[in-house]
Design goal:
The chain has helices at about 55-60, 65-70, 85-100, 160-165, and strands at about 25-35, 40-50, 75-80, 105-115, 120-130, 140-145. With about 170 residues, the chain is α+β, with helices and mostly antiparallel strands.
């Protein structure tokens, strides 16, 4: 008895019900850092990215996306490098985007979303931490603790308010 379902097992050469091609709208696996100011969980580290930084290398952002994302607050984040674990990606983001080495990160969950007319599929690995001071880094034009109780959706980019909602830090406004 065969099934008509197409399970999300991706393999070039595999018997059904595996999938041999990527979804039409794409498939991304990304890590996000949600770093709060110690003692104030509603203030989260976000930045306005520096368009001159190598975002293709440190965040998997192509030039058109860099331009679009430079207009709003963004969480430190990146797609995973092929073969990289989510935890390794989080440590890489700490180092390459924030210049931090020893910040303790906790796994905050894994979420998945499918959106758009072509059904783009995202798998999101979230990591949380706390620190007393916002770092400075050349990847960002601005990098600071953003008060989420005073920030609106239109001030963010890349739907990062959805990521914050997953960990209970964002309420639609």
């Amino acid at each position: 008895m065969g099934t008509e379902r197409r399970f999300a097992g991706f393999k070039k050469e595999s018997p059904d019900p595996r999938i041999r091609e990527i979804p039409e709208g794409g498939f991304c696996m990304s890590a996000f850092l949600i770093i709060a100011k110690r003692g104030n969980p509603h203030q989260v580290l976000m930045g306005h990215l520096n368009r001159e930084a190598q975002w293709d290398h440190i965040g998997a952002l192509f030039p058109e996306m860099v331009e679009r994302c430079s207009k709003g607050w963004m969480l430190p984040s990146s797609q995973l490098i092929y073969g990289e674990s989510p935890r390794q990606a989080a440590q890489r983001i700490l180092n390459e985007q924030l210049g931090l080495q020893n910040l303790k990160l906790e796994e905050s969950g894994v979420f998945s979303e499918v959106y758009g007319p072509l059904n783009h599929w995202d798998v999101e690995f979230l990591f949380s931490g706390e620190t007393d001071h916002a770092p400075t880094h050349s990847a960002w034009k601005e990098l600071e603790f953003v008060d989420l109780t005073k920030t609106t959706k239109d001030q963010m980019t890349r739907f990062h308010e959805d990521i914050l909602d997953h960990v209970g830090k964002w309420k639609a406004r």
